[in-house]
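User: Could you go from structure to sequence for me? I need the amino acid at each position, not a summary. Structure tokens:
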């Protein structure tokens, strides 16, 4: 769940192995009674992390409905010892885990479990079994409230650094249902980021009649749980509950000014096997034709709607909208996926910043360098995984055999670009030669300031353009503007990655920062990314979410993935913390590497900005005349190859 954070997030250790009882506390001692007509709604609030401040408002929303005839609301609440001391109604504040019955305006404690691991699948299993046994009903629903990372898992416990990976989640839910005496959940919900993915749906559809989840990062506040009132009295189906949740979520996000990129789908699990078969069938068919379809698919991949995006390729979740990809017409093998998806998604809400969003994602890293080998351990998407590996092999072969080069030598993959100053800024162009122009996936202009040593310090990148007729020409322009962030006392440049959507006439920028939750403790630092959407017609911007970078050394689901990083969730800043804007430097290989602006000559070392959301302002400002500048055109190709043409000069 892309929820707000008041303090730092620990690294994730993906608990993808067997369900270890040693890491959990049994929540048992109950015997099943006769099932009553109506609903038992279980909410697994795994808040032993930076999302804890949002748990209390969500629980109070549940209490606005409360348990009653036909509806019993049970909550597992694992609280953090450091992220919030807010009281929960009559229960006050505590650290550790309680299981409660949610009443109208109050809570009844049923168990005090002490300090348990909410990132353990066994803990989840025991909660489902025991709560459903104590409060049996005809219809059982489960909502998991926490961080989410698509097929990588959900339910982060910050103290243990555990998260329940998808295979373990599947086992935990199955065991919980068995203990509850149920064949399926009537509805399974994820108030968490990114969990509406083809991988998650394929693995969990056999366990629920309906699944409600988000394809995109969720804003910090999450769902509006007053929607549970839709099934008060015991009526309705999982579809009805899911639709009520989706509508309430959209209204809540609108009231919080966070609705631009929301997405929530209500999925009919009975139709998911056909979707899974279509995805794997397309993957198998495409893998046999990878060499011929890779250029076209790579071009579509570069522009198709994506979720969990990040300017750092190593932190991008690499999730694309599976329906948008299938409907693009790029490859006829994908056509059956679109029809199967339409049959599976019974209802959805999608924000205006996600035009064409169909509510379900699929994993599609653009290059092998960011592909996680542990993805191959998911049987529900074996055919799609086969295509990804064939696609990468074909891309390396095609891109490597047709590198874009400058001048006469095919070995010249870096050169000086021509540039011209205009009233609007500077325009770069460069001719290039490529044997197969279809291998080009993207052209971007990257720009920045030369520091006191002459080294380029990049402050942003925008889309560029290129022609395919004859020998190619790439171009791009920069208006000499840089994104500045200020806290009222200190102003500094910050890197921005810009994407433009002509369909909605919006511009989205993403800006990175080093974030110190405690300004007095420089040893604790996170990298966070602020994301905003700007309406080009009005110039008004809306901050959507912040993301936090995780420590890659602790990701142990697959040793082949060691060293890859990923981000989970967004958050609001702790006003007592500090920020340092990030800019980028170029590595010898031409890759972008983020650094603190205080590590350059652009801002004195030790300078920080207040991490007070009410004090922060963003402004796009022109650089002063005479400022030494750098810009380049980066031509990206299949296989992850990049050729660059650059310029150095001064702002006129």
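Assistant: Here is the amino acid at each position, in order:
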């Amino acid at each position: 769940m892309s929820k707000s954070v008041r303090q730092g997030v620990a690294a994730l250790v993906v608990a993808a192995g067997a369900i270890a009882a040693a890491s959990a506390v049994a929540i048992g001692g109950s015997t099943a009674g006769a099932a009553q007509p109506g609903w038992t709604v279980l909410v697994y609030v795994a808040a032993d992390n930076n999302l804890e401040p949002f748990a209390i408002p969500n629980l109070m929303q549940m209490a606005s409905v409360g348990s009653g005839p036909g509806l019993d609301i049970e909550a597992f609440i694992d609280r953090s010892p450091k992220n919030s001391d807010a009281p929960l109604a009559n229960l006050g504040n505590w650290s550790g885990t309680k299981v409660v019955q949610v009443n109208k305006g109050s809570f009844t404690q049923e168990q005090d479990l002490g300090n348990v691991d909410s990132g353990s699948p066994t803990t989840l299993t025991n909660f489902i079994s025991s709560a459903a046994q104590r409060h049996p009903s005809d219809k059982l629903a489960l909502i998991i409230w926490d961080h989410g990372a698509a097929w990588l898992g959900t339910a982060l416990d910050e103290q243990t650094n555990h998260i329940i990976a998808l295979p373990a989640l599947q086992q935990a839910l199955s065991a919980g249902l068995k203990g509850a005496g149920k064949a399926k959940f009537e509805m399974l919900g994820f108030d968490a980021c990114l969990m509406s993915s083809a991988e998650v749906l394929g693995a969990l559809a056999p366990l629920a009649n309906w699944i409600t989840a988000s394809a995109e990062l969720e804003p910090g506040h999450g769902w509006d749980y007053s929607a549970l009132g839709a099934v008060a009295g015991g009526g309705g189906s999982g579809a009805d509950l899911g639709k009520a949740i989706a509508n309430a979520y959209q209204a809540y996000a609108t009231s919080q000014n966070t609705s631009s990129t929301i997405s929530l789908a209500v999925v009919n699990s009975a139709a998911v096997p056909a979707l899974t078969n279509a995805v794997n069938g397309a993957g198998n068919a495409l893998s046999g034709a990878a060499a011929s379809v890779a250029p076209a698919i790579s071009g579509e991949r570069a522009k198709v709607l994506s979720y969990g995006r990040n300017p750092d390729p190593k932190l991008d979740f690499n999730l694309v909208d599976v329906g948008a990809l299938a409907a693009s017409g790029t490859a006829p093998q994908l056509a059956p996926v679109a029809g199967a998806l339409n049959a599976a998604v019974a209802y959805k809400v999608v924000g205006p910043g996600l035009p064409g969003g169909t509510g379900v994602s699929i994993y599609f890293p653009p290059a092998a360098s960011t592909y996680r080998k542990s993805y191959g351990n998911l049987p529900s998407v074996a055919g799609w995984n086969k295509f990804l590996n064939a696609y990468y092999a074909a891309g390396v072969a095609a891109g490597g055999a047709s590198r874009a080069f400058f001048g006469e030598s095919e070995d010249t993959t870096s050169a000086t670009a021509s540039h011209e100053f205009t009233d609007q800024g500077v325009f770069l162009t460069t001719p290039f030669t490529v044997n197969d122009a279809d291998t080009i996936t993207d052209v971007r202009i990257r720009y920045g300031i030369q520091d006191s040593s002459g080294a380029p310090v990049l402050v942003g990148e925008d889309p560029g353009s290129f022609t395919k007729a004859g020998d190619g020409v790439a171009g791009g322009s920069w208006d000499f503007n840089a994104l500045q962030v200020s806290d009222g006392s200190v102003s500094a440049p910050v890197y921005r990655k810009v994407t433009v959507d002509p369909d909605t006439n919006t511009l989205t920028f993403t800006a990175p920062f080093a974030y110190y939750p405690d300004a007095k403790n420089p040893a604790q630092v996170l990298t966070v990314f602020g994301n905003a959407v700007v309406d080009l017609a009005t110039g008004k911007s809306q901050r959507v979410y912040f993301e936090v970078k995780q420590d890659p050394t602790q990701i142990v689901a697959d040793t082949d993935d060691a060293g890859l990083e990923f981000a989970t969730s967004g958050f609001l800043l702790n006003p007592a913390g500090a920020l340092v804007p990030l800019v980028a430097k170029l590595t010898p290989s031409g890759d972008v590497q983020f650094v603190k602006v205080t590590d350059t000559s652009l801002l004195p070392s030790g300078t920080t900005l207040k991490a007070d959301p009410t004090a922060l302002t963003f402004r796009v400002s022109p650089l002063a005349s005479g400022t030494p500048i750098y810009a380049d055109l980066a031509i990206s190709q299949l296989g992850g190859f990049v050729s660059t043409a650059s310029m150095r000069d001064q702002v006129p």
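One structural detail worth keeping in mind: The chain has ten helices and 35 strands.
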